[in-house]
Queue: 2 jobs
Job 1
Amino acid sequence: MSEISRADVEHLAKLAHISMTEEELTTMAGELAVIVDSVKTVSEAVSAEVPATSHPLPLTNVFREDVVGEVFTEEQSLLNAPDAQDGRFKVPAILDEE
Amino acid sequence: MTEMIRLTAAQMAEGMRAGEFTSTELVQAHLDRIAAVDGGDRGINAFLHVSGEEALATAAEVDKIRAAGGGGTEALHPLAGVPIAVKDLIVTVGQPTTAGSKMLEGWMSPYDATVIEKVRAAKLPILGKTNLDEFAMGSSTEHSAYGATRNPWDLDRIPGGSGGGSAAAVAAFEAPLALGTDTGGSIRQPGAVTGTVGTKPTYGSVSRYGAIAMASSLDQIGPVARTTEDAALLHELIAGHDPKDSTSLVDEVPAFAQAARRQDVTGLKIGVIRQLQGEGYQEGVLARFQESLDTLRAAGAEIVEVDCPSFEYALGAYYLIMPSEASSNLARYDGVRYGRRVLPTDAPLTIERVMGATRAAGFGEEVKRRIVLGTYALSAGYYDAYYGSAQKVRTLIQQDFDAAFEKADVLISPTSPTVAFPLGEKLDDPLAMYLNDVATIPANLAGIPGISVPGGLADDGAGGQLPVGIQFLAPAREDARVYHAGAALERLLAADAEPLWARAPELQTPAAQTAGE
């Protein structure tokens, strides 16, 4: 069984910016240990000589002329904003503490 | 009039051309069907949003052009006026897009996905947006934040996932065509368990612009339909190069529908993948699979066995690559520019706390599980062992496919190891849920096309009979081959019995359910 502790999950959740309750951390530690255990065979399947494939088909860079195309209007950009003011995204004040 | 919803998309198109009915009548019949079977406690719940007014307006446009005759009529796309449903992972102007998540509840896209632009240009009335596992993460549509979809064959069973809504809508005659997305089997596996046809096109052959990203190197938009020909017609409509998608292929779009109409399979070499049968596959599924092989052989196809030894590691590789890419793609849901924002009440506000609370409230359990798993696989110290190794397995799987396609024109396997399982059965066991995708995942890792076509019925273990799907795979860019082979099997099986899609049980309307109680 893989060693994934509650503390490991707490660290990962912090990196992923997801707040979790004590119960969630404990449950997820158990689940992740089982999942990681089942997928770790992949490291046994390959050797250093096997090249990695990051993408199913070869990719080439795509360029376009540096000209202004169709862009969203201010209204479209702010359409789904949780909060907006004066044509800008409005976020909570975070500088007056800690 | 209600019988028009039981035609194939090709028959609907023909019926409108022949003046037997109008698009408005056709769309209204589907809206009536949705109203009758989709809602209520025992409704299918295939639709998260129904856009009746918009669909009727498009239908009226088509009818007007037809009524006027002359020049405009020739310009109409062959499928013009045939309604379509769209998986709610594909963005649409004027209709909400939620990805099945509370994070995007009420979100309105300021732009259309490229496939939607094509559907609108061809004047297919869009009936609405269909249910899915949240952000396409799941194999049963039970991970939707808006409730599970029911399988029209048995309302207590799952319709597959993540595109269960699209498949169920087609199977329940709520729509003749639907769009889905397939990252590890999310078009093919729901197709298999609902008795419908689903295709995962070659990676890059259909633009992903406007498909909300889960795992960008695996995701692919594709068609859901009742017949192979219908799927091919829709595939032709949505395929083609798109400069807005940097992974879009520049190839010409082949004639898929023509391939689906080819009658002869004499000499077609079909490779049976040794690793995708046996352990873990239900007896009834294997029996229908064997019958399909016998049927194809009797019709002149050559059946050969192929070995794909690295497939043993495909599921593991997929469940490292997919969450890794998903953890990166879903980082955009930070509560700043769009989506939900939750302000924590018990602490001073910091960026971390607002993001943490927002993502805790907006994401469901399975999404959180995969983000954390992906974060783990990508973290320092584990990257080489997990993500790096998984990318190497991908190379081995491509090599397996290359070798197999030297021996065979197409490959065949059951699409899903089991028939539809009861709702709730695997909800608390993520690993058991992940095993559903064992036969479909290799195609996504290699970027090759695949199709699932109905292969008959098998015992569900509780006295009922449920659909079994047969999967065909072909080399990249050879999608026409899967349509040829899929249509051949479909035609051969229909020679002995009514097509499977026409044999779905009658659904009771909520009013009838109440009266019967």
Note: Residues 22-39 of chain A form the longest helix (18 residues).
Job 2
Amino acid sequence: MAVPPEAAAQTAGSQGQAGSAGAEKPHLKRDRVVIRFAGDSGDGMQLTGMQFTAESALAGNDIATLPDFPAEIRAPAGTLAGVSGFQLNFSSNEIFTAGDEPNVLVAMNPAALMANLEDIPPNAVVIVDREAFTDANLKRAGYNSNPLTDHSLDKFQVIQVDVTKLTTLATHGMGLNNRAVFRCRNMFVLGMLSWLYQRPTQSTIQYLETRFKKTPDVLEANLRTFKAGFNYGETTEMFASSYEVPAAKIKPGLYRNITGNTATALGFVAAAVKAGRPLFLGSYPITPASDVLHELSGLKNFPIYTFQAEDEIAGVSSAIGAAFGGAIGITTTSGPGMNLKEEAIGLAVKVELPLVVTDIQRAGPSTGMPTKPEQADLLMAMYGRHGESPIPIIAACTPADCFECAYEAVRIAIKYMTPVILMTDGQLANGAEPWLLPDIEQLPPIKVEFRTDPNGFLPYSRDDETLARPWAIPGTPGLEHRLGGITGENLTGNISYSPANHELMIRIRARKVAGIAQEIPPTQVFGDPDGGDLVVLGWGSTFGPIREAVKQVREKGRKVSHIHLRYLNPLPKDLAERLRKFKQVMVAEMNMGQLLKMIRADYLIDAFGFNKIQGRPFKVSELVTRIQRALEG
Amino acid sequence: MATALNRKDFVSDQEVRWCPGCGDYAILAQVQKTMPEFGIEPHKVVFISGIGCSSRFPYYMNTYGFHTIHGRAPAIATGLKVTRPDLDVWVVTGDGDGLSIGGNHLIHVLRRNVDLKILLFNNKIYGLTKGQYSPTSEVGKVTKSTPAGSVDFPFNPITVALGTHATFVARAIDVEQKHLGEMLKRAHQHRGASFLEILQNCNIFNDGAFNDVSDKGIKAEHQLVLEHGKPLIFGKNRDKGIRMNGMRPEVVVLGTNGASEKDLVVHDESNLSLAFMLGNFEPPMPTPVGVFYAVSRPTYDAAMNQQLEESQAKQGAGSLAKLMLKGDTWSVS
Ligand SMILES: Cc1ncc(C[n+]2csc(CCOP(=O)(O)OP(=O)(O)O)c2C)c(N)n1
Ligand code: SF4
């Protein structure tokens, strides 16, 4: 039974105050909940998810999110191709993934239900908008009968809510047209779930107030609907109790919610500020990398130059030009654009200029599944250029970690005068997590020393320790010199076809990159540092599921450990030795075994792979099953 | 104030290695001769090139130089010029480098009007890769890769540049040293992307491609020197001119059929339609050299830097601490 929402809206005050009807409902404690919001692309599910995330972060939970966009910008409404999803895991404990399977699915229409059904476990709560299950919508989603009445959902706890009608009632008398009302439905759902999980609502209210500042009508409608949803939860008999997920015990400090792409952008800004140099981003839009361009484009006062180039080749090339002039040159892209950049990256290797190339990986080959993550560009990053052209590679493991990795990439590029490849992926790019704001003072220094002394200047002389050549920028009197892609004589850089010199130059550059291993921190083993039955080796965004899976298996008393790699080139000096302490080495990757190949080839370690190439992250359960099978031999 | 500069200040210690007789030598000599007149010290000057014989150019200049990758010099130069507007940045490219593989970057750098001086050495052939036809080679051209004659319709560098609304478009000839020097000066004076096509003889793979305009005996009859505000007159005896016949240009001989100087078209560098018309001249019409088009428009690099300055003035220098706090924050104790 639904209470009249107008009445509810009037009493909707601060959260925590009970609604008007009946006694306060009991709060049940849960230590973690996984919710998936699913609806049509136009239903505002990403926004609903993000706001629920913000509320949960404010409630002090640890959180991890997994947005799942459709590839088509405007797939036909109500079809499977148009379903947009957002999964959130919030917990009182430390969590590493957005969760294998949702305990709660919110499905705004039949297509959203159909598209997500196979992911939800029996007994999960399924909340649907009953009115959206019309004959036409059912047909569009491919249903022959209505699942709300044909008992096919009997194994779930189905909660049917007349979201559309209640939204209409909540906005009654405002003179809104149907379309405008329809657009508020997601706020009703958000309000309802905010009550169900006792989320603090002020951040959502604030958000709406800022977002709709200029359209008071729309603001009013959204606020009313949101509050109506909240009070509906409180007053209706639909929900017997609400749930409480207490705050997690997390490291004290100041937090904000951050996505990987924002963190990447901030890492670059921080590096530029620390280095005291302007930042130049040369980039060409591509999913899922574009947000870094968007983010940096708004920060001109730092100063940051953003150049939306005519293509990826111009993007990376312009960054090289900027680096030649003494700016911090960066470029961002995803798989298909990465290919295009490779020739120019080779030039940067040869002329030894600092440059950060960011590959925010997606599923390929070719256009592949642009909105889905994969880790299949590793070998391209390692070997994707002509000639011998080693490049340091760094990969981020969580959205917040993108900050540190971006920073580190710039630091290494400048210190060693080399291009660096920074790898993240679509899941990190759009996924969010709480970020403990770092102390800027504590970030490692980035020293920029331009060569100015013409005495004894040679463009390819080297620092004894790092083997970096001097950064001698145009405009400096007496240092006029020419860089170029043709093999140059050692020290002078003058064109040279001497065979021995060519080999020497290649070996020097390889030594320079290999030497970075000196400052890579020793390998951290999660589990048994001195060895055990099995170690799972991973890199990039698979960190979360692997860590969680290893934790679960360890809790059952098995000698299983986890090693996660941030530096993929060079690999940590002690890695082989660490791996050899384990009876089995399993390399888990979202590709056909690219790191596995490197480990086998470089170390002659008989590792085996666990590979998933579905544009979806590993499920913890899949990893647990595979680890257990390996242990059983 | 620095002492006066001379040619030697711009000559590097590197041995020049083009084929003997190559037109590139003449261009290099003229650039080295003209540079001192700009009064800019070598350390403030940068030459950026792509790949090709012509693109070896930076090695021979005692300035900063960057010999980059095939076709991409305009993009690399853009990154440099935008972040370092204090530098005098030149791009050296060839017809293959600039119009084939790098065609995309060339048109975009021109339309954006980045303040770069772009010298396109057009020898209508690929020199460095030993004689394949180029995007400026004429239909029917017999080369190693087109033994039966090329069926590939050529680009005209001038009209390509005009098509982008480039703000400075000119043509010079390697052996016309004085005129080339003037064109280099004009290109340098211009604020914005200056596009200078230089007809260059590749005596090894395409010898004599520009004979009609460069050969002493006949060139005056085939060369039309463009001068702003002056009528279009040419010929050894300056007895020929260009007159409009309705919408079509035609060659007239002054003093015959009633043609007199006042009937002739007067060159106007700010007239894009006229520039296009002249750009499309090909034999039997005379080949125009000089400035086809020159107008003033804000440059990309200046506009971008202005945005940066304005945003600093408005918001103050960027604060990392503040930026990190953007969005909702919360404290855990
Ligand atoms: C990516 C790439 N493709 C092809 C080449 C080979 N290549 C070098 S120069 C050149 C053509 C140069 O022609 P042009 O620009 O007319 O210069 P010229 O040598 O005639 O001065 C080609 C095809 C290359 N170096 N790089
Ligand atoms: S091949 Fe032609 S363009 Fe190249 S150096 Fe020789 S003559 Fe000059």
Note: Confidence is low (pLDDT under 50) at residues 1-22 of chain A.
